[in-house]
Amino acid sequence: MFVRFFMGTAVFEIGSALLGACVGSFLNVVIWRLPQEDPARRTLGGRSHCPGCGKMISWHDNVPVLGWLMLRGKARCCATTISPRYPFVELLTAVLFYALAAWPPFGPVFADGAIATQAQVPDLVPGALVPEALAAFVASLVFVSMLVALTFIDFDTQLLPDVLTKPGMVIGLIAGTWPGVAGVISDDSLVSVELRSVMASAVGLLVGGGVTWGIRALGSVVFKKEAMGFGDVKLMAMIGAFVGWKGSLLTLFLGCVFGAIVGVSLALRSGLSARIPFGPYLAMGALVALFGQKTLLTLLFVDWPEWQRRHPSSMLLVLFIGIGALLSLLWLIRRGRR
Ligand SMILES: [Zn+2]
Q1: How far is the CA of 72 from the centre of ligand 1 (A)?
Q2: Distance CA 202, CA 331 (A)
């Protein structure tokens, strides 16, 4: 009962943002330490030390966002500049956690798989609903944290570590047992809603990973060279396990659009030597798919075809733009991956 009244309140939303800032602080540690070659430096335990002089950082200088602001971006011990990326990651995670609390994308579901709106919630079985809503909320926090960590590790190293993507797939599948996370696969009411929803998660994993693997293989044939890393395939499998197959295709589409926009503008600005990691754009696509899946799918598959029917010649243009974007993206990625 407590959880029921607590979720959806301002205290819950602000508390989520504060939790996000602390998790963001931890993600900074993950982003910095996970890709380290030396196993002793790869551990996530222990206190933080100054990267400049090695001195231990006191807890009050380590307070998310505020610590950096009070120090004005310079280490207390040796005045080494602290990258504004640290408070940025903390702020970003706080904003994302707040958004998940304020507009939870993984709503509770009815037995037929339809996601309930806030107004319909009182009609649901109370005992079954509340733990599911909370569990789905926790799953969404984990998912978003993984995306933040992977984004910045990919920017830094052009790699998406298995230590994150593989457990991510498993967590996505486990989270999928709660209806409303990846959606529900069929309307067959003979099979329990939990089974149908974990199937939706598994199908999402296979479609997300499979389609990306297909694009990677196609790219290899076209360019006679590896177009995408296998890390991107595993990342997409993880994303699919969380957002289902429709969400994973939407993610891939959005990731291509974002990647092509940023990639082409980078190539125009800094010449053709710009390296383009794909992971951050897939993560961005996944976030948009997470919050706006329903709206965007309606726009793409209901409103858009309606407009198409009234303007038949626009189909060729769309096809041309789509193929052009995919090819320019593959061309850019080919130069980014080792
Ligand atoms: Zn120092």
Answers
A1: 14
A2: 31
91 alpha carbon – ligand 1 mean position (Å): 23
Neighbours of ion ligand 1 (CB under 5 A): 50, 52-53, 55, 75, 77-78
Among 314, 276, 12, 42, CA closest to 158: 276
How far is 87 from 97, CA to CA, in rounded Å? 15
What is the DSSP annotation of 48-99? Answer: -B-TTT-PBPPGGGSSTTHHHHHHTTB-TTT-PBPPTHHHHHHHHHHHHHHH
Q: State the chain's mean pLDDT as an integer.
A: 80
- The C-alpha angle 114, 118, 121, rounded to 5 degrees, equals 70
pTM of the model: 0.84
247 CB neighbour count, 10 Å cutoff: 28
In angstroms, what is the span from residue 39 Cα to ligand 1's centroid?
A: 22
Ligand 1 centroid to 223 CA: how many Å?
Answer: 47
pLDDT of 113 above 50? no
Axis crossing angle, helix 193-223 with helix 162-176, rounded to the nearest 10: 150
